[in-house]
Amino acid sequence: MELALPCHSSTLVCRKPASEREITPLKTNSFGFNPSKYRRKTTSELQATVGLAGPAGSYSPSIPTHKVTVHDRQRGTVHEFLVPEDQYILHTAESQNISLPFACRHGCCTSCAVRIKSGEIRQPEALGISAELKSKGYALLCVGFPSSDLEVETQDEDEVYWLQFGRYFARGPIDRDDYALELAMGDE
Known about the structure:
Distance between the termini: 58 Å
Strand order of the largest sheet: 4-3-9-5-7
Number of strands: 9
Helix content: 10-25%
Order of helices and strands: EEEEHEEHEEEHH
Oligomer: single chain
Radius of gyration: 21 Å
Number of helices: 4
Structural class: alpha+beta
């Protein structure tokens, strides 16, 4: 049975007529019923194919796939995984049960910031880092697409934030004042 889902302009961009869209079955839950039994693969301008990759990382053979190596400094681990050129690195890592740092998922913060050791990344939506930091090799995994095999190292969020905005704080980093915080909390 083929399930036809309506296309709402507020939810996604439909590039194909309903008769040509692929429908991918999802697993049912432990109760034997899954209200979203089928998930449709959709397309958008920045991510050509949005769908679920199989456990073995089965991707479209027509889209180049690159090996991404992430050195996670905070956890002391190294992750290697394959990412198609049209998929976000963070999203693909999570679909392969790889845990990487993140917060906003929209390219607006620096939680998933990395420093590129080798390779190239395309990040048209990375608003959380300046053009200057991008030119110095910084990138955001949540909105980054690999353009080649890639090796990156996670960065401390506060360090990247300081590199981005530190020049605006003339006296240096702002120290936390626990006493002032305690007084402010006591007023509430």
